[in-house]
Design goal:
Number of strands: 8
CATH topology: Rossmann fold
Distance between the termini: 29 Å
CATH superfamily: NAD(P)-binding Rossmann-like Domain
CATH architecture: 3-Layer(aba) Sandwich
Structural class: alpha/beta
Strand order of the largest sheet: 3-2-1-4-5-6-7-8
CATH class: Alpha Beta
Bound molecules: NADP nicotinamide-adenine-dinucleotide phosphate
Oligomer: single chain
Strand content: 5-15%
Radius of gyration: 17 Å
Largest sheet: 8 strands, mixed
Length: 288
């Protein structure tokens, strides 16, 4: 992968760190896009050590603030004249309903709207890079969004549960991936989604998830896989020749996996794109 440029969001810890380390080991110029500069710099040092590659960089990205997303995209476009791999990995689950800087419910905002704006802002550079790949880290948890997206309450103002908001945000990752794949037809750019598996990472820890859900999250930790094993599917989609030219898929354990009926809806994918465009532009952020 010498000469290629890979950007991984949320690469300071967990699955993102492992994904970045693997791509750097494969020779890609690797950019860690993270919200905390101190954590990101420390992660860059450890990724350089682990990979043996000095070609590891940091970009500031807070997905809970679309102004930061816009600035990150501009920064990446300024610093790198190609973009071969974009791994939208960062995400979280939160006990309480919180809002982003622009007032969107945080799970929807951080897990979907931020990555949506980042990707769309980088799309021309991805299109200009032959064979570029977009990897969105979704989850098996999307199956729990049985009623699909709540179109009349996307910001969970009427009803909020942590797992409900999370599972719908992961469904949104799949719908976004599928619509991206449609819009990228006829180009050499692909978009696919990954389920990492149940991973022993910082996910839901650090006070993000309290109460019964927080206890449950801790109880299952001994049975979860390592972050390195969890990163394997993202790395496969980002780098393996086996998936060259394949787009619009959902993979777990580096194999095609079954999406929910909701995730397979072309109408929902198109509707989410339109809704996301309207929300982002309504908040004052232009789209190319
Ligand atoms: N762990 C699992 O079992 C599991 C299963 C299925 C899917 N996933 C998905 O895998 C992805 C990675 O999760 P993980 O397990 O590696 O968890 P993690 O260790 O908690 O990592 C999450 C990453 O996202 C970053 N992040 C959170 N909010 C952000 C924001 N506003 N702006 C930018 N970055 C932000 C975190 O940064 P900070 O360190 O600054 O908080 C961290 O780097 C997520 O999308 C998650 O939904 C995880």
């Amino acid at each position: 992968m010498q000469g290629s440029v890979a950007v991984v969001t949320g690469a300071n810890s967990g699955i993102g760190w492992e994904t970045a380390a693997a791509l750097a080991t494969l020779g890609a110029t690797t950019v860690l896009a993270c919200r905390d500069r101190t954590k990101a710099e420390a992660a860059a040092v450890s990724v350089r050590d682990a990979s043996g590659s000095p070609d590891v960089h940091v970009a500031d990205l807070d997905l809970a603030d679309l102004a930061s997303v816009e600035a990150c995209a501009a920064d990446l476009l300024e610093r790198f004249d190609r973009l071969d791999i974009l791994v939208n990995n960062a995400g979280g689950i939160w006990s309480e309903r919180r809002t982003t800087v622009q007032g969107f419910e945080q799970t929807f905002g951080v897990n979907h709207l931020g990555p949506f704006l980042l990707t769309v802002r980088l799309l021309d550079r991805l299109r200009a890079t032959a064979g570029a790949r977009i990897v969105n880290v979704s989850s098996f948890a999307h199956h729990a969004a049985v009623g699909g997206m709540r179109w009349d309450d996307l910001q969970a103002e009427r009803h909020y549960t942590p797992f409900g908001a999370y599972s719908r945000s992961k469904l949104a990752n799949l719908l976004f991936t599928r619509e991206l794949a449609v819009r990228l037809e006829g180009t050499s750019v692909t978009a696919n989604a990954a389920h990492p598996g149940p991973v022993r990472s910082g996910f839901g820890m650090d006070g993000d998830l309290g109460g019964i859900a927080g206890w449950g999250n801790r109880l299952v930790r001994p049975f979860e896989i390592t972050a390195k094993a969890g990163a394997a599917t993202s790395v496969y989609l980002a780098a393996s020749p086996e998936v060259q030219g394949r787009s619009g898929g959902y993979y777990a354990r580096s194999r095609p996996a079954r999406m929910s009926v909701q995730a397979r809806s072309e109408a929902a994918a198109a509707r989410l794109w339109a809704a996301s465009e309207a929300l982002v532009t309504g908040a004052g952020f232009g789209l190319p």
